[in-house]
Design goal:
The chain is mainly beta. It has 1 helix and 9 strands; from the N terminus they run αβββββββββ.
């Protein structure tokens, strides 16, 4: 974590030209891994990104985590990223946001489900593969009442 903070501080002092400009948008798909409170599972998701101003990006996303040990989960997120350019094709960002997390357990024909609201805190890095395509790696911690958990994501996006 200390290394991440040091890199973010270094990035903040960078004078590189920012590749993401106001109004730029992107859509993407992602693979997810979630772990916490004795439940770990993998999933898939979709996201939309919109640069409100040059360095400030809004990102709503949805992830579905596949059933493991009778439990499937989903999350809906609304995150804010503040982009720090590092070199010509790399951007680091801290993130903060809100989430809704749902879980359903199906055991021997009986079903139970629950939903919770929470906060997201984390960070990530974007790698521009071309003018239109970007690779993204992100890690966040979801803080909620019963199911606080770590979520790691790897995704690809198309900018338009």
């Amino acid at each position: 974590m200390l290394l991440f903070v040091a890199v973010m501080c270094l990035a903040a002092t960078s004078t590189q030209v920012l590749a993401q400009e106001k109004g730029e948008m992107a859509v993407g798909a992602q693979f997810a891994f979630g772990a916490g409170d004795g439940i770990s599972n993998i999933g898939i998701g979709a996201k939309f990104q919109w640069n409100v101003i040059n360095r400030l990006r809004l990102e709503p996303s949805f992830n579905y985590f596949f059933k493991k040990d009778y439990v499937s989960m989903w999350d809906l997120n609304a995150n804010v990223h503040y982009l720090f350019p590092v070199g010509g094709k790399v951007n680091l960002y801290p993130l903060a946001g809100l989430s809704v997390l749902g879980a359903t357990a199906n055991v021997l024909g009986y079903s139970a489900s629950a939903t919770e609201f929470g906060l997201n805190l984390g960070g990530g890095v974007d790698f521009d593969l071309s003018e239109k395509w970007v690779l993204n790696v992100e890690a966040k911690y979801k803080i909620s009442g019963e199911w606080s958990r770590f979520v790691g994501l790897v995704g690809v996006g198309y900018k338009f």
